[in-house]
Design a protein that fits this description.
The chain is an all-alpha fold. Helices cover 73% and strands 0% of the residues.
Length: 171
């Protein structure tokens, strides 16, 4: 069971991990021109932010919710059962992110996967986009772990307190 103080860090860390899992693959899909909606916006570098947003917006809500739920479940499991050593935490959460992505690609029904996986390419594990999704899942684990460690760092909270009060403490 999580305490409120644990949710103070794990909630925002999950949110940025989930956003990474959605937007990084969307950026890569737009960059490589694998989505018809992104291709309509243009192929220049200046068009990439709008194309990325369009690809991410095209992903169906069911896919986003399933991915978010699986990420939360697997991140909690990895944090609970993995050793606390930092490199192991990064590797465990990267694996959790990749597993959540694979689980979403596997479990989402074709009718609900609009703009994602089978809804984007017509194949459940299309080799053209699978590496992009794997990269997104792995990056989600990295971002989640970094955000969690950064939030829980006692030196960071002390420095923030010093800056906000103007008091100089011994470091």
């Amino acid at each position: 069971m999580f305490k409120a103080t644990a949710l103070r860090c794990s909630g925002p860390a999950w949110l940025v991990g989930w956003a990474t899992a959605i937007f990084l693959p969307s950026l890569l899909v737009a960059w490589f021109g694998l989505a018809p909606s992104a291709a309509l916006l243009g192929a220049e570098l200046g068009d990439l932010p709008a194309a990325t947003w369009k690809v991410a917006d095209d992903v169906g809500p069911a896919a986003k919710l399933l991915l978010g739920g699986l990420l939360a479940l697997l991140f909690v499991a990895a944090e609970r059962f993995m050793p606390r050593a930092t490199p192991v935490r990064y590797a465990g959460n990267m694996a959790a992110g990749v597993l959540a992505m694979f689980g979403t690609l596997l479990l989402i029904p074709a009718a609900y996967s609009r703009g994602f996986g089978v809804g984007l390419t017509g194949a459940r594990f299309d080799p053209a986009v699978l590496p992009l999704y794997v990269a997104g899942g792995a990056a989600a684990g990295l971002v989640f772990t970094y955000a969690l460690i950064r939030c829980n760092d006692p030196r960071r909270s002390r420095d923030a307190h010093t800056q906000s009060t103007g008091m100089i403490g011994d470091r």
